[in-house]
Design goal:
It is built from seven helices and six strands. By secondary structure, it is of the alpha+beta class. Among the domains are: about 45 residues; about 80 residues, no CATH class; about 35 residues, no CATH class. It has a four-stranded antiparallel β-sheet. A two-stranded antiparallel sheet has the order 1-2. The protein binds zinc ion (2 copies). One of its GO terms (molecular function) is zinc ion binding. This is SWIM-type domain-containing protein.
Length: about 260
């Protein structure tokens, strides 16, 4: 039940956003291999406890006067350490384009020590801003050079007021089963026979059983029973060979005479 958010903000696909979203696998770890009712109950109470815990944490953080999540602030300060050494050059004032040169020189992994920041776009060629929604060191350097607050470029989902909305849902208590309202099922639910799985084990044989297959302890096949009945009460039989009553073609004496004695 891992949640993956893809953030579409300001008409740009900024990337996969996994940082601020919790993976519920850890929360529900104990809820495996239980009967269904116990499984649902455990899941419900685990999620409810988790929501309450998160709500308390967010409330305490808001009480300290913080506006953004710890994750966003940590990343901002981590990247901000490099911002002091950046050299900012204004390229276009109208659309807010800047060139930012890092003081550290050419970096093999980052390919270039020069990045282009477009505040209006909003983009930085290092891609961190687009990917995380948090201003990178280049954007922070640009903001410092033109004396604006870089916090305005943090995405709204890092704001504690927005973050707390995720856990705003109120859980309803589950009363005893005796107090539950009667479930109204409008239709009887029937399985689709075309989607039925083939049974496990040996498939049912389609072989037509004859006297050869019959053993004494088994029930006789239907046609053998019928033949036995006809033998005992032969009035209904009429031979197609000699047109006489009392036997059929297989037991016809005339047919047996016509066949060669050692024939097939
Ligand atoms: Zn950047
Ligand atoms: Zn006959």
């Amino acid at each position: 039940m891992c949640l993956i958010y893809i953030t579409f903000t300001r008409k740009y696909l900024h990337g996969f956003f996994l940082t601020n979203v919790e993976c519920f696998n850890g929360v529900l770890k104990g809820a495996r291999f239980y009967p269904v009712t116990a499984l649902v109950q455990l899941t419900f109470y685990c999620v409810m406890a988790y929501f309450n815990k998160r709500r308390d944490e967010i409330g305490a953080t808001l009480g300290r006067g913080e506006r953004y999540t710890k994750y966003a602030l940590d990343k901002l300060s981590h990247w901000g350490k490099a911002a002091g050494g950046h050299n900012v050059t204004l390229v276009n004032h109208e659309n807010g384009t800047f060139e930012v040169t890092a003081a550290r020189g050419y970096h093999l992994r980052k390919r270039s020590n020069k990045q282009v920041v477009k505040l209006e776009a909003p983009r930085c060629t290092c891609m961190k801003w687009q990917c995380f929604g948090i201003p990178c060191s280049h954007v922070q350097a640009v903001c410092a050079s033109v004396a604006i607050d870089h916090c305005q470029y943090i995405e709204s989902y890092y704001r504690l007021s927005v973050y707390s909305q995720c856990y705003a849902t109120n859980f309803q208590p589950i009363p005893h089963e005796d107090y539950w309202p009667n479930a109204r099922v409008p239709h009887t639910l029937l399985p689709d026979p075309s989607r039925k799985r083939v049974k496990r084990g040996r498939p049912q044989t389609r072989r037509l059983r004859t006297e050869m297959d019959w053993r004494g302890n088994q029930k006789q096949p239907r046609h053998m029973q019928q033949e036995k009945e006809w033998r005992e009460n032969p009035t209904t039989l009429r031979c197609s060979k000699c047109k006489q009553d009392g036997h059929n073609m297989r037991t016809c004496s005339r047919r047996q005479q016509e066949q060669p004695p050692n024939g097939p």
